[in-house]
Amino acid sequence: MDKVKRMLMTILTSGIATILSFLISFSLTPYITNKLGVEAYGFVTLAKNFTQYATIITIALNSYAARYITISYHKNDMKKSQEYISSVYYGDVTISAVIMIIAVGFILFLDKILNISLELVFSVKLLFFFVFLSFVITTVGTSYTAAAYIKNRLDIVGVFRSLSYVFEVIFYIVVFSFTTPEVWQVGVAICIAQLVIFGGNYYIYKKYTQELKIRRKSVSFIAIKKLVVNGIWNSINSLGNTLNSGLDLIVTNLWLSDLAMGQIAITKTISSIFMSFNQLLAQPFQPLFLKSYSDGNKEKLISELKLSMKLTGLFSSIVFAGFFSLGKVFYALWIPGQDIDLIYVLTVITMLASVVEGPIYPLYYIYTLTVRNKIPCIITVIGGILNVAGMAILVKYSSLGIYSIVLTTTVIMLFINLVTNPIYMTYCLKVKWFTFYPTLLRTVISCVCMTASFILIADVLNPHTWVTFLLTAGLCGVLGCIIHLILVFSKDEKMQLLRIAKNKNK
Q: How many Å apart are CA 255 and CA 120, to the nearest integer?
């Protein structure tokens, strides 16, 4: 029961952080688009994408860091655990320094590479600098995050994430109230938020794993080699993901316009909420997955994986169904004056792939558990290459225009998450190939039922103000939970959830 309570607390704290993140995006997006234009907002998202490109390099070292540090710690092999954490820390410091030097050189010539309005050049360059600086802060702090996995204190991580957003909001209020708003200020706010998270991870590390010291003399090139050899496929996978969804803004900027880039960026803001919900519900399960796998308890692991699928599927289904039925109203209230119809259709196409990605998302940790990333990485890269090629062909030889950017990505991601990943994940665990498909199918059916129900509710209530919109969305959310509970969760799972609720009430 303590584990359940800890998991619920993690979900709660992470949920608060996710809501705060959403509120910041919710407030900041119309502010930037109204004050600085849609183009400026596009560069904020593009700058973040460029740090994702840099992550392709660092992920080779970091993707398995928590796994090896935690397993060695639980086996009471403190020498090995210390070697891993020290190697990761000093490796990240070195890599970050090199990337930052390259980034500065790139930023100096940024206006020669991208289409940037003359009045935005200096501000956009500063934005990119601070966003890359936040990347360095995040990367250097990676080694400290292992402590939260070792002691299963991801709930504290959620608290500091929430605090980071609070500090970010305070910065926006102060700066935007007393200075002329500029897009580079967003980069400073991101840096402040990452510093708070860094401080939180360091606090957990010092409080709960004092015996785990980071020392230069503990750096082991054998440990680094092991981490990189196993993690290189995650880097390749990250490259594939970049080709699938991380190059769309660059392609739009170079082949269409910076205005179109801004419109795509708005759709990505909504789709990122999808991902936030997935991470919110999947992450608390990861220490449990790791423990069950380490103990060799496959039956328990499969049960935990399916439960996590149902929870992430619940939220992804509600968000998609809610947006499909209320998206136009939301955009009309949120960013009035923009091309609502265009942005709505772009967002629906983008979010369609997330209906499947939601329940599948927790299963990606299987690749980390089993250290099997080669095949899915190759598939992802191939999919990414086809995606970029598809964008190029459709933009050049069809009349789809901006729709080409999101359409190819959606088709490819649907195929990967419907076919290749679920089957190979079962192969990694050495279970039947269809193990996860019943849960996935029930989740999709639940989403379809939600969407039909939400459309009916929206037609009846016809919301046109923020109050009526929120009331309608709340009603849809409650109905969505009921639908999902009936169609997806088993009788035993329903009883377990009921027992947890009763204990919480007590």
A: 20
| Spatial distance between the Cα atoms of 448 and 458, rounded to a whole number of angstroms | 15
Class of residue 47 by CB neighbours under 10 A (exposed 0-12, middle 13-18, buried 19+): buried
Q: Dihedrals φ, ψ of 301, to 5°?
A: -60, -45
Element (H, E) at 405: helix 403-415
What local confidence, expressed as pLDDT, does residue 14 receive? 67
Distance CA(321)–CA(315), nearest Å, equals: 10
Q: What is the pLDDT of residue 465?
A: 93
pTM of the predicted structure, to 2 decimals = 0.72
Give the E-state strand segments of 188-289 in sequence order: none
Distances (CA, A) of 196 to 97, 272, 468, 482: 21, 21, 36, 37
| 453's tokens | 């129900």
pLDDT of residue 344: 92
Residue 397: other Cβ atoms inside 10 A: 9
Q: DSSP readout, 99-167?
A: HHHHHHHHHHTHHHHS---GGGHHHHHHHHHHHHHHHHHHHHTGGGGHHHHHTT-HHHHHHHHHHHHHH
Phi, psi of 374 (to 5 degrees): -60, -55
Residue type, 475: L
Query: Which element (helix H / strand E) includes 347?
Result: helix 340-360
Nearest-angstrom CA–CA distance, 325 and 331: 12
Choose among 58, 138, 142, 125: nearest CA to 98. Answer: 58
Whole-number Å distance between alpha carbons of 71 and 48: 32
Among 205, 323, 346, CA closest to 262: 346
pLDDT of the residue at 264: 84
Q: How far apart are the C-alpha atoms of 430 and 298, rounded to whole Å?
A: 10
Q: Radius of gyration of the chain from Cα atoms?
A: 23
Distance (Å) of CA 141 to CA 89, 90, 161, 280: 8, 11, 14, 20
Given this model, what pLDDT does residue 501 score? 56
Q: What pLDDT score does 381 carry?
A: 85
Q: Average pLDDT for consecutive 10-residue bins of the chain (506 residues)?
A: 61 70 74 72 81 81 78 78 84 90 91 82 91 91 79 76 84 83 87 91 83 82 81 77 72 78 80 72 78 82 88 90 93 84 91 89 86 81 86 84 87 90 90 90 94 94 92 94 89 69 52
Q: Are 67 and 80 in contact (CB under 8 A)?
A: no
User: In the prediction, which pLDDT does 7 show?
Assistant: 62
Distance CA 160, CA 153 (A): 12
Residue 64 · residue 142 · CB < 8 Å = no
Residue 68 to residue 77: CA distance in whole angstroms: 11
Residue 398 CB burial class (10 angstroms; 0-12, 13-18, ≥19): exposed
